[in-house]
Amino acid sequence: MRKILGITMGDPAGVGPEITVKALQGPKVYESCKPLVVGDAAILERACGFVGAKCTIHPVADPSEGLYEHGTIDILDMGLLKPEDFAIGQVSAAAGDAAFQYVRKVIELAMDGKVDATVTNPLNKEAMNLAGHHFSGHTEIYAHYTGTEHYTMMLAHKDLRVVHVSTHVSLREACDRVKKDRVLEVISIADKACRDMGIAKPRIGVAGLNPHCGEGGLFGREEIDEIAPAIEAARIAGIDAQGPIPPDTIFSKAIGGWYDIVVAMYHDQGHIPLKVVGFVYDREKQSWSAVEGVNITLGLPIIRTSVDHGTAFDQAGTGKANELSLKNAIEYAVRFAANR
Known about the structure:
Blueprint: E1 3-8, H1 16-23, H2 28-32, E2 33-39, H3 41-51, E3 56-60, E4 72-77, H4 93-111, E5 117-120, H5 125-130, H6 138-146, E6 152-157, E7 160-164, H7 171-176, H8 180-196, E8 203-207, H9 222-236, E9 240-245, H10 247-255, E10 261-264, H11 267-278, E11 279-282, E12 287-291, E13 294-298, E14 304-307, H12 324-339
Parallel strand pairs: 1-2, 1-5, 2-4, 3-4, 5-14, 7-10, 8-9, 8-10
Antiparallel strand pairs: 6-7, 6-13, 11-12, 13-14
């Protein structure tokens, strides 16, 4: 049976509406799931014009009313904005508030069991905060409104998967957060996530924090005092955790098939390798030929996957934004929903 996916439109002033329309143009997505956009029908109608798409926008008040047929895009129309209410490609409180409300609604739908998984398009943190919603990102919104205390971010590009001990904090604070209990918690979440995707015996590579994993304490003792004890505790619990492994080689090994998932110690340690392989810029065409990768929040009572890029205000309204990351996020949501 096809699962219902609630897909937020993202910040209306960004590329979210356009890549949503582009991602839902092919028949394949409708063979694997029932996509339901959560946003404003008027904005999605305009996006169809931007990308030159010929499809029918079908507003609904409840997921049960969706047609879920190729050629028709079902949208739970919240009626918050019209095109004349904001400027495309610019930060605004109106668009920031709408983007936040779309997320609140899709979380509500998932918690009520009306959608089987959620997929989010990019929002703009500045716009959201201008509207009075003081969160640092989607992850924190989901954690707050689902009452989740223990969670982490996972990035994925094909078979390269990374989870993080810390994300949206300063680098100085990130180092302070590398503690045994938190590292063990993230290893455990990573193991469960792999099993939820159908990987029966996950192999987890755990990165070090310091260059060369500290060289026996010469460059720092976090590997000795915090990371290695967490790995040992995980192994005692029956988890195949390996490491600590030098951060400059662990991702190459993961791409080579050594690990099913990598535990990174902080935001950029995990994000940079994912975006190096997922974001491809064509020098000759002066445009992005690929923007791939999925952002997934683990530890929640509901499924949440997302694009791994921002609102791209500079591309909004041009119809040229790349939809590959959103298509990948939809595929991952289907995979999680099928195994849950």
